[in-house]
Amino acid sequence: MKNFTFILLLMLTAIPAAASGGNPHMGWRVIDFVIFVGILYYFLHKPISDFFRNRKTSIKQKIDDAEHILKHNKIELKKSEEFYQNIDKAIAEIQSLYEKKAAIKTESIIKKAREISEGYQSNINEAMASEQETAKKVIFGALFNKMEHQLAKNLKDADEKIHRKINDKIITDLRSL
After folding, report:
1. In Å, how far from its chain's centre is CA 150?
2. What residues does each domain of the chain span?
3. I want to staple 18 with a disulfide (CB 3.0 to 4.6 A). Which of 26, 94, 133, 146 is the partner?
């Protein structure tokens, strides 16, 4: 309201100067203009000041929101930069983890293969022992058959010789009689 009063006083001082200039209607025009401005001020001062106050508040809120977003984005940028600076370390840790898992899996596979191998070895040893026993039986059976056959042949030959000797002895004994 102080501003309006100040503007009204300035205009009222301009009326006599305009009236003395030779145009008598100029003073009325200035008065009409002042009244028009006063009416505009009276009716539009509150809505315009509310508009600009709300606009100011809205702009301030948007600036605060933008600053908050900027602050949040700076934090995220810092985290991203730290992450990318430490990416080699993270990759090395992941690689180390998977190498450990691979070593454990490899040991598990090797252990399982050894168990299977030992099972096969045991089966092979049992099969070999069984085959050896069967081979021994076959060889000893064949050997005994051969020996029996040879013994029978030898006995037969020995019997014939013994029979001849006995026959010869009997014949000799008979002749000597």
Report:
1. 81
2. 1-85, 87-177
3. 26
Residues 6+ apart with CB under 8 A from 83: 90
| pLDDT tens profile 17-37 | 555 555 667 777 878 888 888
Pairwise CA distance, residues 91 & 97, whole Å: 10
Q: State if pTM tops 0.70.
A: no
- Show the tokens assigned to 72: 């949040």
Give per-residue pLDDT as tens, 61-89: 999 999 999 999 999 998 888 878 878 78
Rounded CA-CA distance 69/61 in Å is 12
Name the nearest CA neighbour of 6 among 37, 51, 50, 40: 37
